[in-house]
Amino acid sequence: MSTLRRLASAAAALALAASGLVLGSPTASALENGLLRTPPMGFNNWNSTQCRAEFDEAMIKGIADIFVGKGLKDAGYTYVNIDDCWALPSRNSAGNLVPDPARFPSGIKALADYVHGKGLKFGIYTSAGTKTCNKAGFPGALGHEQQDANLFASWGVDYLKYDNCNNQGVDAQQRYKAMRDALAKSGRPIAYSICEWGQNQPWTWAAPVGNLWRTTGDISDKWSSMIGKAQANRGLAQYAGPGHWNDPDMLEVGNGGMTAAEYRTHFSLWAMMAAPLLIGSDLRKVSDDNFAILKNTDVIALDQDPLGKQATVLSANAGLVVYSKVLADGDRAVALSNETTATATIGTTASATGIGSASTYTLKDLWSKATRTTTGTISASVPSHATVLYRVSRAGGSTRYEAESASLSAGGTIDANHAGYSGTGFANGANAVGSYVEWQVTGPVSALTFGYANGTAAARPVDISVDGTVVATAVPFPATGAWTTWSTVVRPIALPAGAHAVRLTATTADGPANLDYLDGSP
Q: Where are the alpha helices (DSSP H) in 295-379?
């Protein structure tokens, strides 16, 4: 993005909290450690055991066995993570952390080796303070960052959850950056989870620091807690993307405090929000019905979609909430979520999702697996605390032409410095009248859908031409609020069979919006 656009983007910061959508200044560049290009999936013991005696080596080995034996590994669950209370209350004479021999008689390295032997990854916990959060006062990593990072690396740790207790008032960014740097120097790739509880708005600064950051306090196994975490997290979509995720805390599915419908809502919303899917229940005790929720591959596919876009809120009216999530293949996921105590009809339209025009759309219910078609209405009767979750596709499909396959006028570049784009980049046209982006499109085509972002306050109009003839003048590409917030412009058109050149040419000195793709609908 050009300097002019960066300046204009800062001036265009908006807040639309009433709808659950918050738009602000663009996200900083993400942490480039190559990890967690999709949200992490796995397990953490805290929600089911906390610091009780059943948290031990046998439990964690049992979880790894279940991951393989019951198909969770095949469904995408990878990380087996341990939480607080794994260490003795004091460091040894060398200043190193010491695993509790009663809980982990074989040691942490042996446990990590066992997990790795199952084709899984192993995670550990400590705090960015002098002690961890448990009242027993286990040693934290403040002042020991490099020593602890090196120890974790020597044990084969793949994931670190870094908590916020007993931080001695030291600046949060300073503390979390110190561990980032220590992990980078440890010689082992370790995914980095910032558990700062959202106290210092980490979504505004943590993208270049960690792979994910908590946006909320701790979750508990009841509806009010779970839906409160969703409400707090759902307005932060612009900050999430491959390698850097908003984290509304771990899953409670299977712990017994919510109904089946509430657990399905929990899992649906976490998948829509591209949140980590870290199982927080003791899988040795989980019912088959809850396993079915955790193993719903259609829902998991939304969370793990490679485009990495968190859902945005299309509407939120008195507890009836519609979420929409853009998917890498051009489909949309739509969640109709009922936070109220009575059954209600909730609806939206295909047009509102920005999927583009079509004569009909296919709706697949990702829980019932039923499929139906619609001419545009997306609606369902949704019971109290339930969520209906659809994958929406244009009937007959469409062809996507990525911006990186397009031709650009002088000064234009293919960039990848803003999260949420499709493919491998987007077109950043020169800031000039006449700056253009041109695709080669194969007909027949009845509609063109342009994916774009415009972080300035004003629309960026373009002329659209086909094979050298202007077919639409000064078509506006309205402001989206941030360069990481993507939207679509749809134009009906009649392109006959064969090859055609479709060009967008800027009509103002600002140049075109950032252009991500062109979809051609048959």
A: 297-303, 350-353
Q: Is 74 in the active site? A: no
387-399: b (≥16 Cβ within 10 Å) or e = bbbbbbbbeeebe
Residue 334: partners with Cβ closer than 8 Å, 6 or more residues away: 322, 323, 324, 325, 348, 353, 378, 389, 390, 392
Catalytic residue, candidates 100, 218, 298, 365: 218
Per-residue pLDDT of 284-301, as tens digits, reads 999 999 999 999 999 999
List, for residues 387-413, the tens digit of each pLDDT value.
999 999 987 667 888 898 899 999 999
Residues near 357 by beta carbon (within 8 Å), at least 6 away in sequence:
351, 446, 447, 449, 490, 492, 521
Q: Which member of 158, 163, 221, 282 is catalytic?
A: 163
pLDDT digits 0-9 by tens, 508-519? 999 999 999 998
Number of Cβ within a 10 Å radius of residue 189: 13
Tell me the per-residue pLDDT of 475-504, one tens digit each, with 9 for 90 and over.
999 999 889 888 999 999 999 998 999 999
Q: How many CB atoms lie within 10 A of CB 288?
A: 7
Active site residue 113: no
Residue 348 has pLDDT above 90, yes or no: yes
CA distance linking residue 85 with residue 135, whole number of Å: 10
Count of residues making up the chain? 522
What is the C-alpha separation between 197 and 207, in angstroms, rounded?
15
Give Cα 319 distance to the centre of its chain: 23
Residue 242: is the preceding peptide bond cis (ω within 30°)? no
